[in-house]
Please model this.
Amino acid sequence: YTGRREYDKKLTDGKPGTLDFQDAWTVTAARAGYYFKKTVQNLTTGAYPATVAFPGDRLRYTLLIQNFTWPTLSNIIVNDDLSAFFVPGSLSINWAGTTIPSGNVSFNPNGGMNGTGSITINGLSVVTDQQYQIQFDATLDSTLTNSTNVLHQASMTANDSKGTTRS
Model:
């Protein structure tokens, strides 16, 4: 049988080989390709992933770059420019949670378009079955009003083995 079935029953030992609501199945999942992900944790409250933060909270962002199965991704450039909602000078790298070589990372706690901090990753390559991550912390401005949406997005460009630019 292929497809999805839903049952509203109480689970017991089951009957292997009988198609019912208790069968054991092995599921194999595979990922392929390049992966770029950004997550956030609220260090003040401990919430992960953080969906809510308050003025003055300290946030930890993680950028993950991964190549599951494809040829080398090279000339990687990542830019992350903090929005105006962060405290200038509060940006710091969490080197303990960072696997990107320090020579490929530059950051300025007072840089970027808003003077609240910026991070650039440059000259990185990710081979098949390799991943890198960087973690950085920043503090939300304590004068933010409640219900302020703090949008914060990173961008990445790189070249694949055919010279195609990906972003």
Notes: The first strand starts at residue 34 and ends at 42. The mean pLDDT is 87. The CA atoms of residues 36 and 65 lie 5 Å apart.
